[in-house]
Amino acid sequence: MTYTTTLALAAALSIALALLHIVMIFVGAEAYRYFAAGKEMVDAAQAGSFKPALITLGVTVFFALFGLYAISGAGYVKTLPLLQPALWLIGCIYSARGLAIIVQIVMLLQGKTGANLETKDLVFSLVSLFIGTVYLIGAWQRTTAINSTP
Fold it and tell me: Could you tell me the residue ranges of all domains in the chain?
């Protein structure tokens, strides 16, 4: 698989997350509760506050920007500023979130009852780790390809 394909996959995954967050805005409190956005976000959404929607919209913009950087790295659009370091950084951000699975597994193995971990929490971490890995592989493939071009 070439960096073009890998980064196109990374872009699709980030854009899918951006779209998921847009759906969350329209679903409201139940979506915030399911995706563990926190009690304050759920309560504010139930009260009709625009704050959760604005925060979620901000997160959506970041996911869309991450997708745009991956599309740029794949060569489908103009090269964005600081493209290569941005791809590495985005991969690290997703991976750092995904590495929460280590803490989650330790908590489950220790029987921490206050953890309130569900299977979906582990899945969310695995998805983040997967996306981060895709970005990091794509960034590495792109760096290798660029450096090997005469």
Answer: 3-148
